[in-house]
Amino acid sequence: MPVRVLLVDDEPLVRAGLRAVLEAQPDIEVAGEAADGAAVIPLVRQVRPDVVAMDVRMPLLDGIEATRALLRTVPEPPKILVVTTFENDEYVYEALRAGADGFLLKRARPAEIVHAVRLIAEGESLLFPSSVRRLAAEYGDGGGNRAARAVLDRARLTEREGEVLRLMARGLSNAEIAARLVVGTETVKSHVSAVLAKLGARDRTQAVITAYESGFVAPG
């Protein structure tokens, strides 16, 4: 089955460009378009996308609030890929904090756009880990976020789970973590699932942000 993508951006040219890039791929289809975050929830319910590619800055409802509303309202919500003009942007970090699964620059090359959609849909690796690390270093409270530290304390990760979380933060995929730890991929998947459950994280991105903000992993 192809990956179904919903495009949300107030610039028609951006939507047209993304559509052209994505629909050139045999395993991706554009399920719909919207010009503002306010239209996301009804469209998600209507077209059931796997991924929402959404501008972080829009006039009525921006990508941050649309992400929060979507995750709060829709059962089994799609993955959310924030599309932005500026990489080092507090809006991007807030969108990730709100539950977005990753971000993509509007100036990205076609191959990068396709790779980002596929990676977000699969959910087995962190998208642009070095960029997430830089954002966490600038906007993530320097490892002193008390709420994040409390989450880590309550999680009581095992030594192996902590090791897996650190490797997740470096952007390693399940297969790469398995090779590093000399274990099977299914074992890694079990560890990743346990880490997400213990942290109450929706996905790898939220788990890694908690790791950075709690000081469990240094973002520098």
From TrEMBL:
Pfam families: GerE, Response_reg. SMART domains: HTH_LUXR, REC. Residues 4-121 form the Response regulatory domain. Transmembrane segments: none annotated. It comes from the Bacteria. It comes from Streptomyces ardesiacus. The modification 4-aspartylphosphate is found at D55. PANTHER family: TRANSCRIPTIONAL REGULATORY PROTEIN NARL-RELATED, TWO-COMPONENT RESPONSE REGULATOR. InterPro entries: CheY-like_superfamily, NreC/VraR/RcsB-like_REC, Sig_transdc_resp-reg_C-effctor, Sig_transdc_resp-reg_receiver, Tscrpt_reg_LuxR_C, WalR-like. Keywords: DNA-binding, Phosphoprotein, Transcription, Transcription regulation. This is Response regulator. Residues 150-215 form the HTH luxR-type domain.
